[in-house]
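Please produce the structure of this protein holding glycine.
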Amino acid sequence: MKCREIRDSFLGFFAERGHLIMPGAPLVTDDPTTLFTVAGMQPYIAAFRGEEKPPAPRVAGIQKCARMGDLERVGRSATHHTFFEMLGNFSFGDYFKQGAIEYAWEYVVDVLGIPREDLWITVFQDDDEAERLWHEHIGVPLQRIVRLGRGENWWPQERWEGPCGPCTEIHLDFGPGVGCGRPDCSPACECNRFVELWNLVFQMYTEAPDGTLTELPAPGVDTGMGLERLAMILQGKRFSAETDEMWRIIERTIAIARDEWGRELSYGADPEVDVALRVICDHARGAAMITADGIAPTNEGAGYVLRRFLRRAYRFGLDLGASGPFMYKLLPTVAEVMGEAYPELRERQE
Ligand code: GLY
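Below is the modeled complex.
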């Protein structure tokens, strides 16, 4: 499935199951705690807290997100990006653990056709109910269900005062031939054998700075599945930057290198060239999305991140032989490939 087909399929699946499809929020937030929208649930914080009426008891959507914590891993890791798209479904006091698990499994196994024997599950260490649902209700063998602690199966990983709760994740297993090869390898392992596909958060609490948990007025569901990873799996690629939309940006960079820098780059021949191409691709997407939200390069805030993307991409470009500024030549390609899903890229291209 192409990225476009994945977006349509995900939203269609949840629309058919009574979810109101919501447009995403801007990437650059007015939330004083984060520069960028970091998760699909962020526009719904007040709704989870019971301070605002949710748009509907169940909603779904695709959210533009950016996280800077992984900046140094971009290009080297198969799956990390600064800018990414988060597919998510949300329940505000409507369905809870069972509904979230049933929908996720049905979508991944029945709709996407990912073999069930390739899927592993992680649950929060104390969450007997989630483990029971996966094992007894869905039929996942206990050997493929792993209990993990606060660092992995609690959302968010870093303490904040917003909604939080235990989560359960669906991981794809690339098989024992990939990664560390240890017989006890599991999604708890840091090797590349497993990739986290979908995080289902059971939003139940808010947490005070001293760690005290207060129950939300009604438990809710908040799920997040990265479109880029899903596309990587469905398109059989080793890096998410090799999937159809990002690949067009990489191809455009290779064409610029050939036509304007006199360099013949070929992806797959030199790992450092590949890293540079993937970094440039990531930063071109992030720069386009920040700019489309009306931000210009500055010395602070989101404008500083934009400036950093431009500078960093240019530095990687120099390693490839760049002979002048080139990022502005990639932005029309970003608008072309992502403009249907994000019309602001085309509307604000000038
Ligand atoms: N809020 C769920 C996630 O970002 O994974």
